[in-house]
Design a protein that fits this description.
This protein is of the alpha+beta class. It has 15 helices and 24 strands. The strands form seven sheets. The protein has a seven-stranded mixed beta sheet with strand order 11-10-19-20-21-18-22, with helices on both faces. A five-stranded parallel beta sheet has the order 13-5-4-17-23, with helices on one face.
Length: 536
Amino acid sequence: MTAPRRPDATGRGRPDATARGGAAGRGRDRRARTILPAPGAPHLTGDRPPTTAVVGGGIAGLAAATALAERGVRVTLYEREPTLGGRLAGWPTTLSDGSTVTMSRGFHAFFRQYYNLRGLLRRTDPGLDRLRGLPDYPLRHGSGLHDSFRHVPRTPPWSALGFVALSPTFGLRDLVRMNPVAALPLLDVRVPEVYERLDGVSAHDFLESIRFPEAAHHLAFEVFSRSFFADPRRLSAAEMVLMFHIYFLGSSEGLLFDVPDEPFPTALWEPLAAYLDGHGVELRTGTPVETVEPTPDGGFLVAAGAREERHDTAVLALDAAGLGALAVRSPRLGDTGWRERTARLRGAPPFLVSRLWLDRPVAADRPGFLGTSGYGSLDNVSVLERWEGEAARWARRTGGSVVELHAYALPDGAIREPEQQHLEQKRLLEQLHQVYPETRAATVVDARHEWRADCPLFPVGGHGDRPTVRTSDPGLVVAGDLVRTDLPVALMERAATSGFLAANALLERWGVRGQTLWTVPDRGRSTVLRRLARLG
């Protein structure tokens, strides 16, 4: 039997595929929404193709550069760091035992709802063979409660019912005292209506109004909300409810996910860099952009280092701090309202990633990834040799383990005070010993600690200040996971989707057909439940 043909990553159509480890093709959800680009020619024609400066080499910038270059645009990509990947970058480091390994900003889950990110990765890995499926998404609370999504059905409403039935955090008494009316917004999530309804409420207060069991609140829902690197009291309920729709109540992809089988540079970005080079993209890593100023003829003058170069259009694919700082240094960029809103953008609190190379293995039954709550600042633990080739090779050679710890939403002062950093790193190690007691006997052969504070904050009431892809200048577009897209996407998928949308906005000006996109369903799946939600 021939697999049905659907638009592929470039919008042309290819069979669905299934990758090693269970990584789905475009996904299993037959209700996934297709977003078609404006009609146009498949490729630019003429002797002088337009030029675009893409500022930022993370997922959003790479997606924009890919879609533009494939259609004949001359792209120059500027990235201040020496490597591509943004928050998924990696770099070499030498351990005390002489091993050269790759350090990064830590674990990222490639959920099967990430249709557009996966489409980007298919440019160099058509079968997604470099992604490996993890068998479970386990959660553990310091009180001893455990939860899992391995056996939860994927398709709503059975996913929600199955979670409640299987989770130890829901008892009959808990179900009786819950407030079903307050939970109705979860049943029919639409963008941007969800922001109009819930952006003024915190994620914490929304969950309190539903009266979820305290154990479920801490074990499951707080783990999810903290994936935005923010305390639930500071996070917009609209963003959290959208997340529930994407990953749980609105999608049939389930909550299991894939991870790259080698470090990010090897598995993802080095192949994509070669692909972009083959399409004529000039990659200028280690090149911070100082200013982007409009020119009288409608283009943009990009100043980077000692060079100034004119481009016809520009894509700004920066984090909140970088975008705000660029707007301050480029006072003629955009309009006054855009610059004022950009200046109000804020980053999430700092977070810490500690990677430890241990002289002995953790217990054989430890999962590759574990979400945690109730242990202090520890939010998750990864055992990298369970899936990553580089870590597995080190572990086999030394008889040890490579363990990674995450602590999200730490106090703002922690990142600025070396003494506080040291104390937090020590506390995180002690919390690992509580979660995996066998690690108390292990010697830390070496360690690397990454302190960062550059993720976007989605605060209560902040949706209106977030930039959109299009600006008042048709030649200037914005991309990144901080961008408002009016689509049900989040985190890495929002970055990839916004990058493609930015490219599509520019291609539309030149009469060229852009990238076909996919999202999870853009509303609740059940007509009855949608009507109930409207009544609430």
